[in-house]
Specification:
GO molecular function: DNA binding; DNA-binding transcription factor activity; pyridoxal phosphate binding; transaminase activity
Distance between the termini: 43 Å
Number of domains: 3
Domain HTH gntR-type: 1-69
Oligomer: single chain
Strand order of the largest sheet: 3-7-6-8-9-10-11-5
Organism: Leptospira perdikensis
Mean pLDDT: 91
CATH class of the largest domain: Alpha Beta
CATH architecture of the largest domain: 3-Layer(aba) Sandwich
Protein name: HTH-type transcriptional regulator NorG
Structural class: alpha/beta
Keywords: Aminotransferase, DNA-binding, Pyridoxal phosphate, Transcription, Transcription regulation, Transferase
Strand content: 5-15%
CATH topology of the largest domain: Aspartate Aminotransferase, domain 2
Number of helices: 15
Largest sheet: 8 strands, mixed
Amino acid sequence: MTKYKQLAEDLKLEIQSGYYSEKERIPSLREIQNLKSCSLTTAKEAYRILEEEGYIFVIPQSGYFVHPNISSVISGPKNEFYPAVEADDRIQQIMRTVMDPKLISFGAAIPSDFYLPLGGLVSSFKKALQHKEIFSYGDLQGHRGLREWISKRTSIQGYRVNAEEIQITSGCTEAITFSLLSTTEPGDTVIVPSPIYVGLFQILETLKLKVVEIPYRKNEGISSDEYEKLIKRHKPKVFLFSANFNNPNGVLMSETSKQSLAKISYLYGIHLVEDDIYGDLYFYGTRPRALVSYFPEDPRGPKSFLCSSFSKTIAPGIRVGWVSSKNGIRDLSKRTRAYKISENNPAQVAVYEFLKLQTYERHLKFLRTEYKNLIDEYIELLSFYSEGILQIQKPDGGFVLWIKSPLDGDKLLYESKKIGMAIAPGSLFGLSKHWDNHFRLNVSVGFSPKIKEKLIQFSKLFLKKRKS
């Protein structure tokens, strides 16, 4: 690719991302020469391409500006700033249908009982009842043995923390909430990827935080250049993200990308809050490292928090999660004690008893094999019976599928309800309208004959739409 074509592509991405908005003046030819270290001829040719393709227009003696109807040119997601989040009412309205017990729920990202070690858990809870200390508050930072187990396992994965740098919480969502409470004040700005887990918007709304959405880009995940520009423009306090098998699109950031994002965050003093709840459910190779593991260790620098739980691997109802931090756990633990005295002691002891059986890794291996096979089976069936209409993003871990269709996701939820099933519409996973034609499916529902027949019925909804 020639230099001027490459420059044109780079500038297109900046406009597509929303870094330059409609009617906004962009750098002059001379300015772009300095910014991009290119010749005047290269700059002129690049701007000629942008004019021809409808990205920019020129006003004599004033300069170049982004086209006022740029949205008709851009097909990909843009980054957008939201001075306030108002999502809870909309989310609750949709989730009432998604969680309807009368429907087969492919929408909620909850593992079905078949994939949970229920027998081992029952035995572990019986053992826990023999411990007299379960009836007291227990350690305010969480069960010591459990924290030591988490510490050893996390350290093996490249993020070395000790038991004193871990706080047990009631699930991963609470871990994220307290991480944000200890790094932000109402009115601060947080950068989040788009799409992202629906529950995070409810947290951001409750904490009265401003939000910048940075979209996942095809084949690269989060763009480091785009991230750095957004930092300069919006001056956020926190980057809230999931680097390993993001829910809902299953994206796994490359190790190179993680290193680059960690370096940029540290350079600009941005706190990191990482949701790593799906990290153990990888399909290939070894367990991917957390992004925060690449963050420089500096007790006086920006804070980093790694949040997770056993909800996706052992059981969602036990509500045992944790947050680890090398330089922020003291303030976070102080805040947790302001809301409650201690965590659920019986559940912590029962989980620790289960982990002591040393069958957890075997259970994870079973889950990874099962979920990989289910992902393949679902993709094959949905692609065949929808006659290739669906654009399915194949993940390398987790147990959800992110799918683009010709139908609006909210309307698709209504249509799927008629055949006795529920999906999660894409509108749940972003503040913009870009994901309205997407939906998420939970493959942990299984692949029984009944489930298979339901998926076939669902796939044929798209054929009906095409014929009409």
